[in-house]
Amino acid sequence: MRAVSIETGVTKHAEGSCLVRVGDTHVLCTATIEDRVPPFIKGSGLGWVTAEYGMLPRSTTSRMRREASAGKQGGRTIEIQRLIGRSLRAGVDRVALGERQITIDCDVIQADGGTRCAAITGGWVALKLAVKKLMKAGDVVSDPLVSPVAAVSCGLYAGQPVLDLDYAEDSEAGVDGNFILRGDGQLIEVQMSAEGATFSRTQMDQLLTLAEKGVGELVALQEAAVA
Predict the structure, then answer these.
(1) What CATH number is attached to the domain comprising 195?
(2) pLDDT bucket at 196, cuts 50 / 70 / 90
(3) What is the C-alpha to C-alpha distance for residues 180 and 190, in angstroms, rounded to an integer?
(4) Which of 16, 19, 108, 225 has the highest count of CB atoms within 10 angstroms of its CB?
(5) How far apart are CA 115 and CA 166, in angstroms?
(6) 32 near 15, Cβ under 8 Å?
(7) Cα of 119 vs its chain's centroid, Å
(8) With contact defined as beta carbons under 8 Å apart, do 151 and 180 qualify?
């Protein structure tokens, strides 16, 4: 793993916030609580967790155009924010959350590979801090977060299994993947693809073992950050 740090309480107004740094990838994550839910679950008594994701113009080596100026989000952005939302929901008891929505905003300040994984890891911290406020106020009786959720990238770089790829490694990796797991070891999602090379079942297992190790380290940092 690259050096990882999680700084909490970095914004004044959000119900939960953190700045997660994974090497040179830095993501600001904030949580907003709203007493409403999407129309498709209104009246069900179930809560909802959703996410939005974006990259600042100079988070990369050259300036990116703001998606707002183009009038729409790109396909990559939509795919990543849906991934963040469904990953975080996998660790939530939506009955215990009650009929309210928590939105996690993930803004990439600086990118050097693994932005979606950092967003999921930091997003859970922001979510946990927001839930703690709900519990302190007595709005939620039992903790709806059943397990931490964290994510890490792994790949085959120069023929070797590598944990937590930076941009240079990711761009040259023959195989790369994103692994999202709960703190109890349950898998949420695995995204693996070959980039000009194939991979064996043995190599896939090696990468999963690496990911389990990395997520274990991330969960320990998450729990320390929200203690």
Answers:
(1) 3.30.230.70
(2) confident
(3) 6
(4) 16
(5) 10
(6) yes
(7) 4
(8) yes
Tell me the binding residues for phosphate. Answer: 76, 114-116
Upper half-sphere CA count for residue 222 (Cβ side, 13 Å) = 25
Please answer whether residues 99 and 34 qualify as being in contact, where contact means their C-beta atoms are separated by less than 8 angstroms: no
Q: Residue 41 is encoded by which pair of tokens?
A: 């679950």
- Output the CA angle 206-208-212, nearest 5 degrees: 120
Tens of pLDDT, residues 63-88? 999 988 888 899 999 999 999 999 99
Known binding positions: 76, 114-116
pTM: 0.96
Q: Name, in order, each residue with C-beta under 8 angstroms of 16's C-beta and a sequence gap of 6 or more.
A: 30, 31, 125, 126, 127, 128, 129, 130, 131, 132, 133
102: tokens are: 């928590």
Within 13 A of 49's CA, how many CA atoms are on the CB side? 28
Helix (H), strand (E) at residue 11: none
pLDDT tens, position by position, 96-116? 999 999 999 999 999 999 999
pLDDT, mean of residues 23-52 = 97
Which of these, 133, 149, 226, lies nearest to 184 by C-alpha position?
A: 149
- Domain span at residue 193 reads 4-226
Average pLDDT over residues 52-56: 96
